[in-house]
Structures are given as structure tokens and as C-alpha cells.
Amino acid sequence: MLCAGGPRLLSWVGVNADATGDERARRAVDAVWRIESPRVVAGLTRIVHDLGVAEELAQDALVAALEQWPAQGVPRNPGAWLMTTAKRRAVDQIRRNETYARKLRLLGHDLELGQGPAAFDEPDDPEVIEDDLLRLVFVACHPVLSREARVALTLRLLGGLTTDEIARAFLVPESTVAQRIVRAKRTLAREKVPFEVPYGPDRADRLASVLEVVYLIFNEGYAATAGDDWMRPGLCEDALRLARVLSGLMPDEPEVHGLTSLLEIQASRSAARTRGPVPVLLLDQDRGHWDQLLIRRGFAALARAEAAARARGMPPGPYALQAAIAATHARALDPGRTDWAAIAALYEQLAVRAPSPVVELNRAVAIGMVKGPAAGLALVDALAASPAGAALEGYHLLPSVRGDLLTRLGRTAEAQAEFTRAAALTRNNAERALLLSRASGASGASGASGA
């Protein structure tokens, strides 16, 4: 849950012993905001039925904290303080603004007579908070929004990031992110998207959108599409936190646990994925640096995903299958002990559940490890020549995989040409440097097999 960040917050603020009281208070405000803002916005949206107004009220509470905490000290329960302040301002605004007269009547006499604000002094019912958070997740990831808008709005509302932080993470102008968020709110209002959790077929469709957004955020942090840095750990952390929140809010959904498992295990490799600024691919990583706690958490989430799927009489979903592939890598103490046959079989299942050229490319890598590079190269070339392979035109990992397989076959000149082509296609500078290094004669593991 989001509130699990509390102990980390206290220790993080406390380690800055040399900071002034004002500095510590401001750092506390920043940390609390990241952790508690989704709950505050969700609770306010339930009251005012308008996501944009809810966020403005939450921002008012943030401003109040910045003004008062440095002078008065950080409250004992900072999250509850923010919620109480924001809700009181919501009541004040409803009373002041004639356009909210109808909503005021709907809220009932308890708010009008001032009974509501007294109740706000007490922490909200945890079950109500969870319901509000779940509603907010489905609103932020509504399919009526573009993929880019869903990502930006999710990071703003559920990740607690500022527009500047989102812009820097995705290497786009801050104005672009701000416009996406504003347009997203307008779209939600125009389409009258209700603040609710859908059920039945609608829920399944919407959940796919939610999981996709979290997955996209993690992937951008795990292997940045552009810029100087190979990874953006902050995005990985935000996505993993969101996945854990979803697991707590939706414990009976197999794919929620499948995605959480996948992200836990992928995140376990972070410390081993770079050597200085240089990327280190999967088969070259020092597995002693993999985070065993995250791996165990990933295994546990995978077990929950499998149990939930069995309870529904369903086969494993795409995220659970990807998590199982990641778990197979994690179980190998060294690369030579990787069960590539099991990985190839899992990719076969994934190709049925979620067919895509990228899945086929990764399956070819696994087949190349099981049956040899010639078999893998044959599959890659057949894929590239197929109608589905047209989607991989301009995808840098296609020539990268070919280069790796050609290197293993001793066809060095052809491999160097493929690595050079891959380097020209990627927009990530660290990855480009790695590919150019391989083009000059260095060897290494295939990028498509994961890093």
C-alpha cells in the first residue's frame, strides 16, 4: 500500500541531521506528498466528483503544509493532516461557490451544518481509502485517454510526480506533459467518466489499460528509449510501487500479481545492469548483485498469480508468463545453468496468449540458446521476412539479435554490420555506445534476451 512508505520517509528525513528545521520540514512535505497525494486526490474526487477540482484542492493542502510545517513542525500523522486540510477546503469551496450548490445538497446537511469537518479530524476508514484509490487508478488509466496521457496522468496522480519530473523522465518538454494532463482531465470531464470501479467485461478491458500503463512506466525506467542514461531507476520504483498497490487493492486478479511478480524480478537486476555508465546485458551480469529480497517477493507474487488463475480455471496470463520467464532466469545461479528449454516453452505459450513480433523475436533468442545459433537465426530471418516482421522495421533489437547470432556462428563481418545498424536505430546514447563497441569486435549477450 502507499502508506508503506512511512517508515522510509521518517528515516530519510532523519538522516539529514545537518539540515535546518525548515529544510527537514520541506523534505518531509515532499516525501509525504509523493506517498499520500494519491489518497488525498482520490478522497477528494469522491466528494467533489471532479478530478481537476480534486487535484487543485490537494495542491492547496500542499501549499498549506509548505507554509505551516516549517514553523509548526511536521505533524504526527502528516498524511491525515493533508487529508483533513484538503477536505476542509473542499467544504469551504462548496459553500462559497454557487456552481457547487447542487453538489452541496447531495453531500447532505452534515457538511452544511459543519458536522462533516469535525469528522475529518479522524483518519479515514482504510476500506474507503482503498476503494477511492482503486477508483482513481481506473479513472487515470481510462481507455478514452491516449496512452501518453494515461502515463502522464498516472504518474501525476498516483506517482506523485510533478510535470517537470515527468517531462525529464521521458525527455519531452514540460509544456507537453502539462498539456497532456490538462487535456486528459478535460477529456474525462467531457466524456463524463464516472469515479467508479467498472465490473464485468468493462472491468477486464479497463484493467488491461491499467496494467499496460504501469508496465510502460517500468519499461521506460528499465531501458530508457532515449537520452544518455541506460536506466531511470525512479520510474522503475514508481511503477513497482503502483503494482504493489494494485496487488493490495485487487488480490483476486491473477494478472495484477503477474505484473507485480515480473516487475519485482526485473527490478532485482538493477544493480547489475550497469558498470558505470555502460550497460551490462543479461548473460554478462554478476548475479551476486541481484537483489534476493526482490526475487523472493517476485516468486511469491508469481505463486499468487498462478493460484488466482487456477481458482478461476484460467491459464496463466501474459504478465504471469513473462514473470515465469524472469523467474527461470532468477533461479539460475550462473548463466550456464539457465533452463533455456523452459524459457522457449514459456515463449511458445506467450505467443498464443499475446502474439506479437517482439515475443517471436525473444522466442528466437531462446531457441538459439537451445538448438544453436543457426536455428535461432533461421527464425529471426523468417520473422523479418513475414508480414508481422514489418512491425519490427526500425526496431534496433532486431539487428542486435541478428548480430549476436552471427557472432556465435563466426560470421564476424556480417555481425559487425548488424550491430552498426542497430546502433543507428537506437535513441539511447548508452546503448548506442554498447552496440558500437560490439560492432568493433566486442562480444556479449543478445539484447533481446533481456538485460
Tell me about this structure.
- The protein is mainly alpha-helical and 451 residues long.
- Among the domains are: 1-197, no CATH class; 204-211 and 221-322, no CATH class.
- The protein is 69% helix and 2% strand.
- The strands form two sheets. It has a two-stranded parallel ribbon. A two-stranded antiparallel sheet has the order 2-3.
- The chain is globular, with a radius of gyration of 24 Å.
- The protein starts with 5 loop residues before the first helix and ends in a 12-residue tail after the last helix.
- Mean pLDDT is 84; it is low at 1-18, 109-123 and 442-449.
- Keywords: Sigma factor, Transcription, Transcription regulation.
- InterPro entries: DUF6596, RNA_pol_sigma-70_dom, RNA_pol_sigma70_r2, RNA_pol_sigma70_r4_t2, RNA_pol_sigma_r2, RNA_pol_sigma_r3/r4-like, WH-like_DNA-bd_sf.
- This is RNA polymerase, sigma subunit, ECF family.
- Residues 206-305 form the DUF6596 domain.
Descriptive keywords:
DUF6596; RNA polymerase, sigma subunit, ECF family; 451 residues; mainly alpha; WH-like_DNA-bd_sf; transcription; two-stranded antiparallel sheet; disordered N terminus; DNA binding; globular; two-stranded parallel ribbon; 2% strand
